[in-house]
């Protein structure tokens, strides 16, 4: 018989939640709403007070309060160390299912693995958290309340976690996002966590630092002409080709020379898309690329954008064209280790006891953790599954890791120290 975590993960996989920014507008699998509704029903069955926070039309963050410790919802704590809860967070959205070789929404079992879109990124971690919290939700020894949050749009902008963090800003729970549910935003504001665990597939190791990211579009604007008379025009693709070479030069002469972060490595840059031209017989008037700049934990997206934009202006041959640097459409700081080390070491000890894992490490990708840390919450990243299987054509998670994650999350919630 399948374990509770496996059964729950199967249910979550069966609920399409493809990020709508990563698929066609009419894709019936787009949007996180089915998962949000499921989480609301799950919380109601457990008797947890819950809150939905509207971030984008039809796309809501979800938050639930698990166990009240010495406090109650009707009399939420007024502050102080004893009142501060633990936050467990897992995002709702997945990448698209294009090119998958297994049924993305019908979980398949084989050789101790569970296959399906989101199995490891990050519905496996979500299922493990929910099962662990359901087990401890009525425990009289729960040292303090636990908050479970599930955000939208992690895969394409981090806007969900930014909206979540607004609940704990200096605004008494008010923000630009409407909320509704049995848990008020004012109560949540008074329950600001001191510590948080963000679910990502880390193979049950503890991530204490990760890179940030900035993505933006660069355009070249030239002058269209018939291709039989190219001198009458200004070729935007030629100008963009020079910009691409300038980006390569920036990678080798600037970023490659910087000190390597001991956990996350050096910052990187990539040109990830290239579009230009309207026809085979027309000198192209416009060309555009997307730039993906991965940041060291100490860098800011604003600094990275400004520096590379200046470099392009100084090193590219624009050939009678102009260049436009669009504002970043995605940006997030990195996570730097420091204040999160006490939490990381406690979690590491538990993971070592349960699964012989728990190594402290850094990762090159971004996560929701940095935004929570910026809000003053000590945050680490931890979960079952491997990042090597995330976003793949046959995404899977090891069932053994999934089940061990339940016990690790459960022990962490019960063993919190000040």
From TrEMBL:
Domain of life of the native organism: Bacteria
Protein name: Acetylornithine deacetylase
One biological process term in Gene Ontology: L-arginine biosynthetic process
Entry-linked Pfam families: M20_dimer, Peptidase_M20
UniProt enzyme class: hydrolase
InterPro entries membership: Bact_exopeptidase_dim_dom, Peptidase_M20, Peptidase_M20_dimer, Peptidase_M20A
Record key words, sorted: Cobalt, Hydrolase, Metal-binding
GO MF entries: acetylornithine deacetylase activity; metal ion binding
UniProt keyword rRNA processing, yes or no: no
Residue intervals of the Peptidase M20 dimerisation domain: 208-316
EC numbers for this chain: 3.5.1.16
Source organism phylogeny: Bacteria, Pseudomonadati, Planctomycetota, Planctomycetia, Pirellulales
CDD domains per record: M20_ArgE
Protein's organism: Adhaeretor mobilis
């Amino acid at each position: 018989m399948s374990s509770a975590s496996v059964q729950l993960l199967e249910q979550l996989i069966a609920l399409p939640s493809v990020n709508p920014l990563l698929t066609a507008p009419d894709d019936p699998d787009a949007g996180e709403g089915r998962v949000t509704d499921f989480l609301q029903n799950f919380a109601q069955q457990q008797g947890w007070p819950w809150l939905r926070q509207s971030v984008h039309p039809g796309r809501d963050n979800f938050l639930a309060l698990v166990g009240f410790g010495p406090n109650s919802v009707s009399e939420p704590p007024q502050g102080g160390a004893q009142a501060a809860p633990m936050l467990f967070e897992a995002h709702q959205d997945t990448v698209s299912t294009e090119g998958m070789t297994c049924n993305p929404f019908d979980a398949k079992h084989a050789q101790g693995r569970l296959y399906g879109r989101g199995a490891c990124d990050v519905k496996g971690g979500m299922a493990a958290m929910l099962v662990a919290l359901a087990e401890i939700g009525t425990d009289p020894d729960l040292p303090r309340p636990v908050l479970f949050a599930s955000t939208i749009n992690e895969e394409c902008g981090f806007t969900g976690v930014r909206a979540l963090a607004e609940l704990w800003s200096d605004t008494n729970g008010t923000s630009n996002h409407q909320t509704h549910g049995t848990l008020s935003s004012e109560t949540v504001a008074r329950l600001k966590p001191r510590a948080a665990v963000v679910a990502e597939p880390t193979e049950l190791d503890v991530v204490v630092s990760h890179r940030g990211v900035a993505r933006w579009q660069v355009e070249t604007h030239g002058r269209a002409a018939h291709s039989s008379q190219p001198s009458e025009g200004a070729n935007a693709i030629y100008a963009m080709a020079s910009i691409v070479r300038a980006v390569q030069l920036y990678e080798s002469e600037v970023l490659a020379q910087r000190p390597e972060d001991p956990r996350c490595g050096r910052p990187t840059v990539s040109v990830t898309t290239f579009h230009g031209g309207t026809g085979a017989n027309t000198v192209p008037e416009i060309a555009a690329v997307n730039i993906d700049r991965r940041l060291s934990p100490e860098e800011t997206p604003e600094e990275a954008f400004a520096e590379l934009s200046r470099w392009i202006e100084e090193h590219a041959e624009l050939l009678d064209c102009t260049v436009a640097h669009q504002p970043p459409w995605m940006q997030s700081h990195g996570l730097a280790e420091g204040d999160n080390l006490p939490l990381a070491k406690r979690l590491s000890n538990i993971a070592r006891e349960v699964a012989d894992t728990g190594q402290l490490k850094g990762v090159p990708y971004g996560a929701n953790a940095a935004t929570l840390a910026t809000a003053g919450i000590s945050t680490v990243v931890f979960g079952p599954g491997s990042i090597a299987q995330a976003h793949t054509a046959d995404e899977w998670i090891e069932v053994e890791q999934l089940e061990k994650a339940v016990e690790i999350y459960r022990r962490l919630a019960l063993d919190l120290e000040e």
